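Issue 218. Parser rejects a valid record. Input:
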Amino acid sequence: MKYVSFYVIVICLFFCSAIQSCKKTNPDTRPTQVQVNVKDLNGSKVQGARVLLSDGNSGITDANGSVLFEIQSLAIFVSWSATKGCRLNLHDPILNSLTGHILNTYTSVLYPAGTIQITTANSVFYNVSFNSASPRELNPGLNFFNFEPGLTSMRSSPKNTPGNFKDTIFNLSCGDTTRITLPY
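Output the parser choked on:
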């Protein structure tokens, strides 16, 4: 009798563990959410700002200065820009650390700004620097840069001919877009 109850217990444990291993686990199906809060330079909430995600989703901030998005895939590299009137976020933050199945919250501060749009002709790479900052390489095609209103200087040179540069000065107003095609 002693051995029978031992075998019954062993058989029950075996079946219980077999049943547990056969159960399918359900993956977490909650969406990944991104909330973007938009504020002005004074820290006040900005209602009615347009927020555009790089995956094509867009929304308008509510009375709390917030807009909520559901991200379907964490594999998508998501960044955003926020605009209202001539104010926008000067630095396009990158959401490269999204955590799945939870609310990810980010804040964007709008600045009065103007835009410099540079189109490089053919397949020539250019180095440009603004306001005497370190030069950066422009890819062929369309490039955008945002600056606070006022005087902005730009030095450009083809990457394959360093020292062959051209200096340009712009007076940007809030909301202006200055378009340049390189070479001049």
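Fixed in the parser; the record now loads. The chain has two domains: 32-112, 114-182.
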